[in-house]
Specification:
Length: 311
């Protein structure tokens, strides 16, 4: 959903692409190829490859499909298509990435909508093509040029993984119910990993944004989350060995209780926090999970849009 800052609870160190290799995980820490600790201080490129109604300040058209529909009604189909092509081409530019580096961030998180990367042509696995690939290629080249890291995040999976407007699904997390949607999601991640295998600009893959909203059938859905993570991680590691994989907590990335100890190397865990206390008690449950399993945590989304909270 919302985005501003990403914070990891370790020490600050700059990227070190010159050393080659990938960032890895040792215990609770992210370790750069040169052996230095990495403190992730990042910002998300929200509303670019994944439009969201609250970022446009829309009251009715909140899901991407609703936003696209509203623009088509206003502009007509042809002009609407032209608008979105221009929007995606210009919304994030090389100067933006350079600015992010200049003001002290070291990481960008890139939310994706599956429909920009695959076409559902009725085949069992869909077709892995779309305008998103060239745009992602370009921004990753800028990220690497600037000496930043990128986290690639699947914000909208086939069928929807959350069950609310920002996954662009039907209002229920069908990806966990419909085998074909699940297969398409796994196949998309494998295609992403195959394309960017070994790319040192990519810190890791954030498999699902805010899976399983709190008001759905948690007794049925929560036990499905970790098996899905296992399947996707295995598919990724077949073609991109050693890449960090971020596993998001359930219930809008607020609870880890449905997840067990790490099932593979180089796993990190990500949670989101909004309108919360800035005291330790607001994240103590997440710290307990990290301590129990000796794993790193990433605060993947936060931001109350007040200077006082952010400070």
């Amino acid at each position: 959903m919302r985005w501003l800052l990403m914070i990891c609870l370790v020490l600050l160190a700059p990227p070190a692409f010159a050393q080659g290799g990938l960032v890895r995980i040792e215990g609770k820490n992210f370790i750069q190829p040169n052996g230095q600790l990495l403190h992730i201080k990042g910002i998300s490129l929200g509303n670019w490859l994944m439009p969201e109604g609250y970022m446009f300040k829309f009251e009715v058209a909140k899901a991407p499909r609703q936003i696209y529909g509203a623009f088509e009604r206003l502009l007509g189909r042809e002009r609407s298509v032209e608008f979105w092509k221009t929007f995606r081409d210009r919304y994030v530019a090389r100067d933006d990435i350079q600015f992010i580096k200049a003001v002290g961030f070291n990481t960008v998180r890139i939310p994706l909508h599956y429909a920009l990367f695959m076409k559902d042509d009725g085949s069992p696995g869909g077709t892995m093509e779309g305008e998103g690939w060239a745009l992602l290629d370009r921004v990753l080249s800028w990220v690497r040029e600037a000496g930043l890291y990128a986290i690639v995040d699947l914000h909208a999976a086939p069928g929807g993984q959350t069950g609310i407007n920002h996954d662009d699904g039907p209002g229920y997390p069908l990806m966990f119910y419909v085998p074909r949607d699940r297969r398409l999601t796994v196949r998309l991640w494998r295609a992403i990993a195959e394309r960017y295998a070994g790319n040192p600009a990519i810190l890791g893959y954030d498999l699902l944004n805010e899976p399983i909203a709190a008001f759905h059938d948690l007794a049925t859905l929560n036990p499905k989350l970790e098996p899905f993570y296992r399947d996707v991680t295995n598919a990724i590691r077949e073609v991109d060995t050693g890449r960090i994989v971020f596993l998001a907590a359930g219930q809008w990335s607020s609870r880890f209780d449905m997840l067990g100890p790490p099932f593979a190397p180089n796993l990190a865990y990500t949670y989101h926090s909004f309108w919360s206390s800035t005291e330790r008690d607001s994240i103590q449950r997440h710290l307990n999970f990290a301590a129990l399993h000796e794993v790193p945590l990433l605060l993947g989304e936060a931001g109350e849009f007040t200077d006082e909270w952010n400070a």
